[in-house]
Write a structure and sequence with these properties.
This protein has about 160 residues and is of the alpha/beta class. Helices cover about 35% and strands about 20% of the residues. The chain has a single domain, classed as HUPs (Rossmann fold, 3-Layer(aba) Sandwich). Helix 4 links the parallel strand 4 and strand 5. Bound molecules: adenosine-5'-diphosphate.
Length: about 160
């Protein structure tokens, strides 16, 4: 079984995240969208809400699971028998950051491959950070988040 973990904060999920996941569905038997919980980090939306939104977006995709984990991503991969980590790349800055983490992860566990997927130009400027700013400013995020949850995305 080819199992991939797509780790992230997803605070909140955006159309950019959904695009990466959808394009990877044909490549794997199972994709676990996994929210990494970092007790040092402040989130805008509670973990339960972030997971609920992802469940809703992918409810008809039998290959997709939504989960959460504490600690290192590679340890979580081992726990769920995943050999692949998925990450999205929007820019050269993303690439440099992801390259460092991928090298470290590969050094720690040679059996886990990181797969980097390029975001299309129309999604390259979309980030959870921007979406949070718009929500805090009481703006309209409907172009940046999946339509089935857009109306729920407010504080
Ligand atoms: P993290 O806090 O781990 O960066 P995010 O939820 O912000 O978590 O992002 C998870 C993954 O999704 C990262 O690999 C990030 O590069 C990718 N990503 C975020 N936004 C987009 C986008 N608009 N297009 C493609 N990939 C994206």
């Amino acid at each position: 079984m080819k199992i991939a973990v797509f780790p992230g904060s997803f605070d909140p999920i955006t159309v950019g995240h959904v695009d990466i996941v959808r394009r990877c569905i044909p490549l794997f038997d199972k994709i676990i969208i996994a929210v990494g919980v970092n007790s040092q980090k402040k989130y805008l939306f509670p973990l339960e809400k972030r997971m609920e939104w992802m469940h809703k977006v992918f409810e008809n995709e039998s290959k997709i699971e939504v989960s959460s984990y504490h600690g290192l991503t590679i340890n979580y991969c081992k726990e769920v028998s995943a050999n692949y980590i998925l990450r999205g790349i929007r820019s050269a800055a993303d690439f440099e950051y992801e390259k460092t983490i991928a090298h470290l992860n590969h050094t720690m566990n040679i059996d886990i491959e990181t797969i980097l997927i390029l975001s299309p130009p129309e999604y390259s400027s979309i980030s959870s950070t921007i979406v949070r700013e718009i929500i805090l400013g009481k703006g309209d995020v409907s172009k940046f988040v999946p339509q089935e949850i857009a109306s729920e995305m407010h504080l």
